[in-house]
Design goal:
The chain is globular, with a radius of gyration of 15 Å. It is 70% helix and 0% strand. By secondary structure, it is mainly alpha-helical. The chain is built from 3 helices and no strands.
Length: 88
């Protein structure tokens, strides 16, 4: 069992990720369905993944408002989340 602030941060992050997933799940199901063409699935999926990456970044910020105006591309968001979370 983890103790100290590292354990608390892990618990807070896991709870935050679960909340993000639950909040977005119905939206993804609404916009991604079996009848879609491959290109639409790929494009929408890419946008949804990018949105999730940004949510994860904000989860790790003390003041998430400060990151809102930073223009980060997909690869920057992916690399930052990878650096914070490790290999997924």
């Amino acid at each position: 069992m983890k103790t100290g602030t590292a354990g608390w941060d892990t618990m807070r992050t896991q709870e935050g990720l679960k909340a993000i997933y639950e909040a977005r799940c119905s939206r993804y199901e609404k916009h991604l369905h079996a009848g879609m063409d491959t290109t639409s699935i790929i494009l929408k999926g890419h946008l949804f993944v990018e949105e999730l990456l940004f949510d994860i970044l904000k989860l790790h910020c003390r003041d998430s408002g400060l990151i809102e105006n930073i223009k980060l591309g997909f690869s920057h968001k992916l690399n930052l989340v990878h650096a914070m979370e490790g290999a997924i």
